[in-house]
Amino acid sequence: MTSQPSASQPRASRLPPSGPSCCEEFAQVGLSRRGFLGGAMATGVATTFGSTVVQVASAPGADAAPAPARAVMVVLSLRGAADGLSLVVPHGDPVYARARPRIAVPAERLLAKDDFFGLHPSLAPLLGMWDSGRMAAVHAAGLPARNRSHFSAMEELEAAAPGSATRSGWLNRLIGADRNPSPLQALQLGGGTPPAALYGPQPFLSASSIENVKLAGADQWDTRKGRPRSLRTLWASQKDGLGAAMQAAFTAVDTFEPARTSSTTPSHGATYPGNDLGRALAQVARVVRSGVGTEVVTVDHGDWDMHTDVGNLEWGAMKRNAGEVAGALAAFFTDLGPLGDTVTVVCLSEFGRRVVENANWGLDHGYGTVMLLLGAGVRGGYHGRWPGLSAGPDSDLLVTTDYRSVLAEVVRARFATSTASVFPGFTPSRVGAMVGQ
């Protein structure tokens, strides 16, 4: 058993220096996902330009210029299994404080508190959105069955079709519904492998940054633009699948130019935190402003695998991570200004943490967690059906809301799309977290 410091002791020296905090599986999940995505779900053709990947379908029309966006949805994945009981605290459940004698958030410090729930104080930058009814929390949400494996749970969450023979991600099915998509309709920003939610027959774009959405070598040294001209000439005569993929990639790069060359200065006085999530969301805002037809953007944030050092309000990984998310999202909506009325952000995680804290000021793999919705179409407040907590050593927050029911409301409200093709074989239950649903 690890010896424990006092709650008031400065914590900087106790935090993990970098990378995943515990699970070897989580440390390897990027590699595991990459191997998985290289298999059955990657049914299109991937064309790589430098650090940019354009995944294109073999179907006709994949090289079409994008139509105007119907809406914009940003899916923010909290990788590593975020503890919903810390982010949105059920202070009205008497088991909560007893199960977490050192890491429970005191009820008197909670924000937006009602008789039962309250927000973690590190979410303070989002309090304005909450008070204006533009932020919602759906508690006790998650997968239909327990799955404590990061890799397996991520795969299930992002396929969103358990028991189905479908081998594509839910976002790929969404962008293919009711229209012929272009590679710019869905975008993954940041390092690492694109999420399984995007993989399938429909095209999408993946880039470490929007500045990298260009032809490799097409830089200041190519003063006569010879490389792009040569590449286009080379592939113009190719009529096979690879030739079609290259033509689609050229179209994507050309059409994305307004986003790539847009101003890097945030609007409306927004100031982004200087972390990876802040930088990623600053680029998402540039994409939205440029109007290149992007409807779906995925961004990852981690590490939420807090087997150790969850901490309290003075120190710890929860305070740090919650603050990073809140600061970045608040800056994002400030930056967008009125355009924020066209954007919905969905925050979700593969599963939650146990009810009872462990010996290392941490929490082990659990089940239910919380989903956060922000922006356009959101009906603010607390949603979901509370199952009650128990304090056994392996006790979980049970799931009373299938996460697909929440996503289905977003899909219907924002994209006016039937959910039957996006979530095959699933009948959503009403959650009420989106206006009109």
TrEMBL record:
The domain of life is Bacteria
Q: Which Pfam families match?
A: DUF1501 (PF07394)
Comp. bias regions, Polar residues: 1-11
Cross-referenced InterPro entries, in alphabetical order? DUF1501, TAT_signal
Q: Where is this region: Disordered?
A: 1-20
**Protein's UniProt name:** DUF1501 domain-containing protein
* Organism ancestry: Bacteria, Bacillati, Actinomycetota, Actinomycetes, Propionibacteriales
Q: Which organism is it from?
A: Nocardioides jishulii
